[in-house]
Each structure stands twice: as structure tokens, then as C-alpha cells.
Amino acid sequence: MKTKSPARAVRATSRQVHDHVARSYRSDHEIIAAKTQAALLTLEAVWDAWPDPARVVDLGVGDGDLLQELRRRCPKVLAPTGVDISPAMLALARQRLPDLRTVEVSATEASSRLPAASFDAAFAHFILAYVPLPDVLREAARVLAPGGVLSLATSTNVIAGPFLAQIDRLSRSLNPLSRQAVRMARRGLHRTNTPDTYEHMLPAFAAAGFEVIDRRPLDFPVHLDGPDEGYQFTIKDGWCANVLIHPILPPSATAWLARRGLRLIRYPYVAEHRVEVCLLRKVV
């Protein structure tokens, strides 16, 4: 019997996890909605220079809300393409945008399915927890036309500070469930590509041939009163859903472990969620 390689197994599990998140994904979430509005404000300075129709691609299209909002605000006709690893997310996006061209592939392989230098704008919002920044920048640079722009939005690891302190506490526990929760959390943190700060991303921008033309940091207070709110925020809302990705265990098992682990956290959990919204131009 042919077995999957570890990389293929992780990709398959990642697809299942994103399909799971699609069941309860809320693009009207305060953080997502504010991020979208900030990104649209940065684009107002450049979209007059786009051709009509403007060719745009979202490298993690989710439910299509971002492209739908862009269509409402942008004065140009849009020819939209949505890339996502999740068939369930792509189905949601097509409901919002019936003319959306969809491509079921990871953002790290987008250029293998899209023509080179064929887009005026690309979007990569909240996908760095799952894919490395250099890979996203490489793929965006390949599919963007000269002078094209990349709208990048990402959380940072600022929010993880209080959680890391709790992880240190739980790692000394005699409870085997607590230690398993610690291992799962550390695995997820090790696998995430979320940047620590805006400044940590700058060398990657320059190396990939992008210049920053706008940056808007957004801060959101997070206050979670119990494990149910913790699960809603981390898993159902998708902010830490990458912890469910495991090369062996199915998402149902890792979701159960996540629920059990969140019961071990001390509440209320209070932190700050820093989001960086950046507009980059591909240097000709």
C-alpha cells in the first residue's frame, strides 16, 4: 500500500483544516473587517493607474470577502482570480463572486498554475501562519506585472507573549494531558511563519524585489473569558488553526486536543493582537 510522504500528508491535513474552518469562518469579524478597510485605503492611491479591467489575484481567497469589497470600492472593472488550498473556501468565494476564476492550490505553488507577469495586483492576507513569507513573495513577484502591487496583511507574534508564559507553566505540570497540550502548542508555534514584527519582514521584502509604499499597523485588544471563547478565537475564527495540522492525526483528533488544552489556560486571557497591513510594489 502506497503511503503519503510527510509533506503530502501535511498538505492534505492542511486542506482538511481549512475546510473545517470554512464551516464557521466570519469575514465580518472585527479584526478582519478593519484589516480589509485599511488595505482598501492603501489601494486608493494606486488603483487609478490600473488598466480596465484590472487583473487581481488573491493568494488565499478564503470566502472572497476581500475581493467583493474591492469590487464595491474600486472604480475599475475587476477580473478576479482566487487561489486557495481549501475547496470549501473556494465554494464560499464563488457564491460571493460568480465570475471568480478559482485555482485550488497552495499559495506556495500559485505560479505553477497562473501565467507569469499577468496580474496588476495580488493579495496575501492572513496566510503567513501557514506558508513562509519568502515563498509568498516569490510567487507574487512571478505572477505580478512590472510595477504591480502586493497587498500583504498579517498578524504578528505580539499576541503570543502571555500564551508563552502559560506554556512555560504547563510544561512543569505532572499532568500528562498538560504536557501533551504543551507539545501540541509548541509544534504549532514552531511550524507557524507568522512574523515577530514588521521590521523582521523588511529584509524579505527587499530580497524578493518589493518596496514598501504604505504601511498601516492595527492593534486590537483580545480578552477571552474561558475555554469556549478561546476555541472560538483560536480555531473557529482561524487565528491559530494551524495547530490542528498534524502529519498523522486527523483534524478531529487535534481539535479535541485543542479543546482540552484550552481548558488548562488561566482566564481571563488578555493580550494585544497586532496586525500589519502593507502595500508593496514590485520593483521593475
Q: In words, what does this structure look like?
A:
- This protein is of the alpha/beta class and 284 residues long.
- Helix content is 41%, strand content 23%.
- It is built from 10 helices and 7 strands.
- The chain has a 7-stranded mixed beta sheet, sandwiched between helices.
- α6 (161-171) runs antiparallel to α7 (176-191).
- The radius of gyration is 19 Å and the shape is globular.
- The N and C termini lie far apart (50 Å).
- Residues 1-6 have low confidence and may be disordered.
Question: Main attributes?
Answer:
284 residues; alpha/beta; 7-stranded mixed beta sheet; 10 helices; disordered N terminus
The best one-word shape is globular
- Which regions have little confidence, pLDDT < 50, spanning 5+ residues? 1-6
- Mean of all residue-level pLDDT scores: 87
Pattern of helices and strands: HHEHEHEEHEHHHEHHE
Spatial order of the strands forming the largest sheet: 3-2-1-4-5-7-6
Number of strands: 7
Which percent bin holds the helix content?
40-55%
* Terminus-to-terminus distance: 50 Å
Using only C-alpha atoms, the radius of gyration works out to 19 Å
- Summed up, the helix count is 10
Strand content: 15-25%
| SS class | alpha/beta
Largest sheet: 7 strands, mixed
Set down the secondary structure blueprint.
Elements lengths: L5 H17 L7 H14 L10 E5 L6 H9 L4 E7 L2 H10 L4 E4 L14 E7 L7 H11 E12 L5 H11 L4 H16 L10 H6 L2 E15 L2 H10 L14 H12 L6 E14 L2
Helix pairs in contact: 1-4, 6-7, 7-10, 9-10
Nutshell version of this structure?
With 284 residues, the protein is of the alpha/beta class.
